[in-house]
Amino acid sequence: MDTTASTAAVGIAAPRKLTLRNYLAYAAGDAANNLSFTMAGMFLILYYTNVVGIEGAVIGTMFLAVRFADAFTDLIAGRAVDAKKAGKLGKFRPFILWFSLPLLLTSMAIYSARTFFPDISPGAAVAYMYVTYLLMGSVFYTLVNIAYGSMAPAITQDPVERGRLAAFRGYGAAFAILGLAFAIAPQIRANIENPLALQRSLFLTTAAFVVVGMALYLFLVFNTREQVARPATPVSMKDSLKTFTTNKPLIWLSLGAVLFLTAVTALSTLSSYIAIYVQQNPQYIAWNILAQTAAIAVVGPLIPVIVRTVGKRAGYVAFGVATIVGAAVLALSPLSSVPLLGPVAFFLMGLGINGVNTLMWALEADTVEYGEWRTGNRTEGTTYAAFSFTRKMGQALGGFVGGFALTWAGFSAARASTGEPQEAGVAEAVQLWTGGIIAGFALLSLVVMAFYPLTESRFREITAEIAARRAAAT
Predict the structure, then answer these.
(1) DSSP H/E element including 101
(2) How far apart, in whole angstroms, are the C-alpha atoms of residue 167 and residue 23?
């Protein structure tokens, strides 16, 4: 595939092979993102039930409402990215540079309710939760993450490099998740019966994350570059909207992502409760997450092999099956008497979740080429935003279902925030709800992906035709 002529036409240097530094820089971006996003996914509900005293159903409703709004701001951010002209830092990196610090500061603010307002009332606490989470997730995280995710198709067109780039994105996320687990779990273990001490500890930790996160974002900004040819004329709003109506691979992928992310977010929402109330030791928060994250060491090297041999869609299905098996082990194992079975279940789910998520990003990048082939317009921002929109819908549903699962299981935030034990049978109910939700939504996702139409051979044909068009136009 020869893109040199068309590349020169839009003022971008000829593509070169990605280096380890480029991969590490891209990984640093997702590590920084997860200091805010995964921190909220893993510990926000626990903070508001056990420190602030808000019931799980109220928090689940907040997840649904705010993440629904978040999905629409994704579309606005995607359009802003597509409309921006490339400057000295390219098209995408300026958004990351401008909005990363506000993102990290609002993430810290989420966990500061009783630091800033020690005697906050229940109603004010709910309002504070909504406002801070909305600013963090729907405004600043959206602006940073849409630009970050949209960069991948502009960095390389090579399918194997894209698979490797997606794998390094997974490594970055895994690094951050492990750091969060081992930084936060000991604090919860030491202070689970002392909400005020846990508040002080979380405030100081999230303040430290501001410094670490900015260092990671700066490494990303100054060690990546855009090198895939694109039309010199900015994409119009009308052309951006065609992304939603003509890109069939994106539609099927997005529907599968909604269902799978519902399962993943429910696990993230409820995993702390599994450790504290089922395995009866908060330190298992760290061990479970370590097992889940360690699976990326197995998955990462497999991704390029899977892309070259069976293809991304078949790999997605295989990893999805592993998720379902792990969820069954989680739901049915005697975790209260044999807590070590928890890391086994989380490792199996980690194989599936890390594999599917990695392939999702590689598949999303492929849909950019399909959209350009179909319409003649390259819309990285809008394509990523459309995909992110549906992922946020899955995250909204997962947080909603996870929060309500606590209520359905009989969990009492009033008891938790005063250090009292839960009623008998609550732990077993939480365990069954968690495993059942994960397995059910993962299965539905696999059914949808059976219809995904963009095969590896078809993708190669499309990219070759796009290159020929550009060369002819030049």
Answers:
(1) helix 93-110
(2) 9
Q: In angstroms, rounded to a whole number, what is the distance separating the alpha carbons of residues 120 and 294? A: 40
The CATH number of residue 415's host domain is 1.20.1250.20
- Give CA–CA dist 236/92, Å, rounded: 17
Alpha-carbon span 303 to 318, nearest angstrom? 12
Q: What is the pLDDT of residue 381?
A: 67
**pLDDT tens readout for residues 206-221:** 999 999 999 999 999 9
Domain hosting 312: range is: 18-229+236-473
Residue type, 186: P
CA 254 – CA 392 distance, rounded (Å)? 10
- For the question of whether the overall pTM of this predicted structure is more than 0.70, the answer is no
- Between CA 124 and CA 192 the distance in angstroms is 23
- Taking the C-alpha atoms of residue 53 and residue 413, their distance in angstroms, rounded to an integer, is 6
Number of H helices and E strands in the chain, helices first, is 19, 0
80, part of any domain: yes
Of 263, 367, 354, 350, whose CA–CA distance to 303 is shortest? 354
d(CA 456, CA 458): 5
Both tokens assigned to 284: 């298992």
